[in-house]
C-alpha cells in the first residue's frame, strides 16, 4: 500500500514538473489557442473546410498546443530547436542563416514546404499543420527571439506579484493568467482592425516577423533593467502589446494557411 502511494506521489511530482517546463518555454495553452482562434476567423471558407477535414473535425485551436505536448516523447526531441531563434544585434536572419541550426523560422518554412508538397501523406500533413500553427505563435512571443546568453529571458529572475518567476515566463503565461480570460474571450476581445491595418500586418515573411519580435524583445529586456518586481504597472504597460502579438500571430497564420489551402 505504501509503495503504491509513493509511486502515485512520484507520478504526480513528475507530472507537475512537466507542466512547469511546458509553461516556461513558450506561449501557454491560452496564448497559442488565442492565436489559432484569431487565425480561424481570418480563414477563407475553402481553407477552413480543407483544414477541418484534415484535422478530422478538430479546430486549429485544439491542435495549437500539440508541439508542446510531444516534448515529453524522446522521439520528438529533435524538434525542440524549432521553437526559437537567436539573432545577434545588428544582424538580419538572412545574414546569419547559413550559420544557424534548425530554428523557428526554418521550422515554419519546412512546415509550409511539407504542406504544399503533393507527396506528403495525410498523417504527416496533420503533423506539420499542427506544428505550423504552434510555431507561428512562438515566433510572436518576443522572448523566443531573445538573447541566447540568457535563454530568451529564462535566466533573468523577476518577481510577479511577489512570486518568483523569470522574464520569459512573464511573457509566456504570467500576464495571460493574471488577465484571467479564456482563449475564446481573448480572441473575441482582440482589437478591431481596418482592412488596411490587417493588410499591413500580413506583409512580410517569417524572417521579417522574427526581426520584429527581436526588436520588441530588446525593449522588454530594457523594461526590467531598473525594476524586477513586476505587477500591476507592468501589466498596464505591456499587456496591450502582448495582446497585439497574439493578434498579429493569428492574422499572419491565417495568411499562410490561406495561401496553402485557400
TrEMBL record:
Pfam families assigned to the protein according to its UniProt record, in alphabetical order: S1-P1_nuclease
Gene3D superfamilies assigned: P1 Nuclease (1.10.575.10)
Record's signal peptide: 1-23
GO annotation, biological process: DNA catabolic process
UniProt keyword list: Disulfide bond, Endonuclease, Glycoprotein, Hydrolase, Metal-binding, Nuclease, Signal
Organism: Mesonia algae
Name of the protein in its database record: S1/P1 nuclease
Entry GO MF terms: endonuclease activity; hydrolase activity, acting on ester bonds; metal ion binding; nucleic acid binding
Xref: CDD domains: S1-P1_nuclease (cd11010)
